[in-house]
Amino acid sequence: MMRGYFWIIVITLLIAATPLLTSSNTFFNFTVVVLIIALAAQGWNLLGGIGGQTSFGHAMFFGIGAYTASMLQTHLGVNAWIALIAAIAAGSLAGLIVGFLSFRAGLRGSYFALVTLAFAELLRVLANASEWTGGASGLLLKLEPSLANMQFSSRPTFMLLALAFVFISLVITQHIVNSRFGAHLVAVRENEDAAKALGVDVLTVKLKAISLSGAMTAAAGVLYVQYFLYIDAAIAFGIWISIEALLAPMVGGRGRVLGPLIGAFTLHGLGEITKSFAGRVPGIDLMVFAVVLIIVIAFASAGILGLLKKLSDRFAAKGGA
Amino acid sequence: MFSPIIIIEAMINGLLTGAIYALVALGLTLVYGVLHIINFAHGATLAAAMFAVWGLNAGFGIDPYVAIVIVTPVFFALGYGLQRFVIGPAAHGDDGNILLITLGLSILIENALLASFGSDTRSIPSDFAFSVVEAGPFLLSSAKLVGAVGSLVVAILFWLLMTRTDTGKAIRAVAREKLGARLVGINVGHVYAVTFGLGCAALGVAACLLMPTFYVNPRIGGAFVNIAFTVVVLGGMGSVPGAVAGGLIIGVVESVSGLLLGESLGQIGIFIIFILVLLLRPTGLFGARV
């Protein structure tokens, strides 16, 4: 009956309850960053996890979202929430354009990964040189905390906002997984030619997926600027966010609705633990991420959620016997 | 406007740099042609090789050109081991997995370099870096000339290895027909690892030829990996002559667009070529088919 919504609600409520247990700003900072990454990663998961189209350039959507929102607010004085809608639309449109160009050219697998990376890098160079984006010095949003400006001086409040975004993305993804469109998407991932032979309109399915994917990751970019009130080309279109968006679902469980959220919490939790042991060695957390990625691919390609499912199946089988 | 002399000089400089790009791309295209995988860790491996060259110079006073005899075999062994013991076993034969594993390796190598050397940019100080050769109206950097000639020599050696030796014959057999090669007694896992090792060895040579005029920092691989992918895609994935032609073209494009558009926008030419080739002619100029 619930078809997957149960765990979404439980986990969302658990995170929403944390302000009752702690008032540590370090914790809320950590959680906000994890939630922003989980949102960006859910966008990746829709296209790469469920649809099987591995992108190395989701930074392009993150950056388009972040820059659309901040340029509309700083240059034109547009309201933050309207800027959010515009940013989501821009991310979705960018997805359609890139998807149309690359899927129509028949790019799959490694080639698709490379072309998305190239688009993100192209945008990074442009954003770094253009005056509109503030060039290399970036754009600063004015600090004016209020609901209308989507800025909150209390960190728990911002965490709840980010959580609301993630919750919506989880519900949308679950809805897609349960739908006919979701089944088509999985069919395209498993065997594109077979899906085509069975009458699935492969190009349309992929385009729908990449435009939704771009929209979600763009929303994450908006959250980023609303929280840090600053953006530059290296943050917005940098390879770091493309990698974060890919790592979280890979580790959590690619193609699974809760994969990105679980993966983002696990990776960044491990990163924090490593940093507390190793001190201020630069790049040490990313080294841990990379090792985890390789281990996951080598030994548990279905990620943490895949492992849990295997364990619970084994347990159920034993209990039944 | 720029005088023709300046533009021609930029083109010649582009050709010289492009020859080294070709050498960097050679390993990438060889690995793609034989293993059919895209090695995303190629740039990070080059950065590691450049740090090795820098370290040999800073620690033991070894000249970068002399370092070729040390760095090249070490990186061959490293590449052999990586493919044999990490990439091969971890990927379970799935191309998508290989791409992700090499991405993981590139993050690991890059950040290991960052953790050990910090983010400072380093170079090898030498008078040779500033010496020039006069060729008619043009002044050319001696170190760049040596780099270009060295790269072309290595490309020819590669070609001889592939066409004239038993190892090359085995590599080509595996590239053409993996199962058939196994049936006639070729150890496919070994050939894969040798190919990967050769790709890394080419990077070792490239690092030694680059260091006299170039600098190194942990993030340098990213810049090279973009260029190398563009070269390989332009020349045709898996084609050695394609890598050489692609390298020279990209060198010229980068140099001329840098002159016309300025340092920061100059890189745009490369990405636009990359995207256009992928979208319009993914087989590249010399590639047979994807």
UniProtKB/TrEMBL annotation, chain A:
<feature type="transmembrane region" description="Helical">
    <location>
        <begin position="158"/>
        <end position="177"/>
    </location>
</feature>
<feature type="transmembrane region" description="Helical">
    <location>
        <begin position="82"/>
        <end position="103"/>
    </location>
</feature>
<keyword id="KW-0472">Membrane</keyword>
<feature type="transmembrane region" description="Helical">
    <location>
        <begin position="59"/>
        <end position="76"/>
    </location>
</feature>
<feature type="transmembrane region" description="Helical">
    <location>
        <begin position="27"/>
        <end position="47"/>
    </location>
</feature>
<protein>
    <submittedName>
        <fullName>Branched-chain amino acid transport system permease protein</fullName>
    </submittedName>
</protein>
<feature type="transmembrane region" description="Helical">
    <location>
        <begin position="227"/>
        <end position="248"/>
    </location>
</feature>
<feature type="transmembrane region" description="Helical">
    <location>
        <begin position="5"/>
        <end position="21"/>
    </location>
</feature>
<keyword id="KW-1003">Cell membrane</keyword>
<dbReference type="Pfam" id="PF02653">
    <property type="entry name" value="BPD_transp_2"/>
</dbReference>
<feature type="transmembrane region" description="Helical">
    <location>
        <begin position="286"/>
        <end position="308"/>
    </location>
</feature>
<dbReference type="InterPro" id="IPR001851">
    <property type="entry name" value="ABC_transp_permease"/>
</dbReference>
<feature type="transmembrane region" description="Helical">
    <location>
        <begin position="198"/>
        <end position="221"/>
    </location>
</feature>
<keyword id="KW-1133">Transmembrane helix</keyword>
<dbReference type="InterPro" id="IPR043428">
    <property type="entry name" value="LivM-like"/>
</dbReference>
<keyword id="KW-0812">Transmembrane</keyword>
TrEMBL record, chain B:
<keyword id="KW-0472">Membrane</keyword>
<keyword id="KW-0812">Transmembrane</keyword>
<feature type="transmembrane region" description="Helical">
    <location>
        <begin position="98"/>
        <end position="117"/>
    </location>
</feature>
<protein>
    <submittedName>
        <fullName>Branched-chain amino acid transport system permease protein</fullName>
    </submittedName>
</protein>
<feature type="transmembrane region" description="Helical">
    <location>
        <begin position="12"/>
        <end position="34"/>
    </location>
</feature>
<dbReference type="Pfam" id="PF02653">
    <property type="entry name" value="BPD_transp_2"/>
</dbReference>
<feature type="transmembrane region" description="Helical">
    <location>
        <begin position="65"/>
        <end position="86"/>
    </location>
</feature>
<keyword id="KW-0813">Transport</keyword>
<feature type="transmembrane region" description="Helical">
    <location>
        <begin position="191"/>
        <end position="211"/>
    </location>
</feature>
<feature type="transmembrane region" description="Helical">
    <location>
        <begin position="259"/>
        <end position="280"/>
    </location>
</feature>
<keyword id="KW-0029">Amino-acid transport</keyword>
<feature type="transmembrane region" description="Helical">
    <location>
        <begin position="138"/>
        <end position="162"/>
    </location>
</feature>
<dbReference type="InterPro" id="IPR001851">
    <property type="entry name" value="ABC_transp_permease"/>
</dbReference>
<keyword id="KW-1133">Transmembrane helix</keyword>
<dbReference type="InterPro" id="IPR052157">
    <property type="entry name" value="BCAA_transport_permease"/>
</dbReference>
<feature type="transmembrane region" description="Helical">
    <location>
        <begin position="223"/>
        <end position="253"/>
    </location>
</feature>
<keyword id="KW-1003">Cell membrane</keyword>
<feature type="transmembrane region" description="Helical">
    <location>
        <begin position="40"/>
        <end position="58"/>
    </location>
</feature>
<comment type="similarity">
    <text>Belongs to the binding-protein-dependent transport system permease family. LivHM subfamily.</text>
</comment>
